[in-house]
Amino acid sequence: MNKKYIIEASSIYKEYIDGDAVKVVLNNIDYSQHYGSTCAIIGPSGSGKTTLLHALAGLDTISSGTTLLCGHDLKKIRQQQLSQLHNKKIGFVYQKSHLLPDFNVLENIAMPLLIGGMKSKLAQKQAMQVLTEIKLEQYAYYYPHQLSGGTQQKAAIARASVHKPDIIFADEPTGNLDSVSKELVLNCLFDLNKHNSVALCIVTHDQKVAARADEIVDMSKINS
Ligand SMILES: Nc1ncnc2c1ncn2[C@@H]1O[C@H](COP(=O)(O)OP(=O)(O)O)[C@@H](O)[C@H]1O
Ligand SMILES: [Mg+2]
Fold first, then answer.
1. Where are the domains of the chain?
2. According to the CATH classification, is domain 5-222 in 1.10.510.10?
3. pLDDT tens across 166-217, in order?
């Protein structure tokens, strides 16, 4: 294991069997990313971006190849250890915020800490700190449906970062937003990288997002 890499993946291969047909979705991909760095995964729709992100994050299995995430071999790790790794060191942001509608913003953000076993009062305090850092504290007691799409996405980023992860995986995080909200959400993500050294692995269609990353991985070049 090379400590400077948060992700070290080699020859990632994934296929789906559909009747007699074999569909190769990831074709022997090598991917590595340094701690504290940002990488954008780009490529046309259907080129395997989400599948790669899920493989790197340990959300999905691969047919063959090796992935080390925070030094853990995802093939060998036990389910319970993987859940712990996700809960302690990894954050996820999707195209939709997936905030829980029956909980307010503060409760949504505190949720990963509660799941990780933290006492409620401390979890709420830590959640409020993160909300304040991203200037969302005035929305702490709002419910998700009362927020704009951009603010919901910022709350989702707060939830993904409340446990101070080493890396955030984001799949088209600005895909549903207008250009002003897009910029705010992007700033929020990249500020986490700048100020807290959180690594970012972002799937995007958006050239503006890709341009801000340290590295760009283009699926149309590496996945053929
Ligand atoms: N569960 C599945 N079964 C069969 N094919 C799948 C499955 N999931 C994804 N695919 C196929 O894998 C390819 C890549 O999908 P995806 O990773 O979602 O691409 P992208 O995120 O770049 O749009 C697509 O052709 C998709 O149809
Ligand atoms: Mg996708």
1. 5-222
2. no
3. 999 999 999 989 999 999 999 999 999 999 999 999 999 888 899 999 999 9
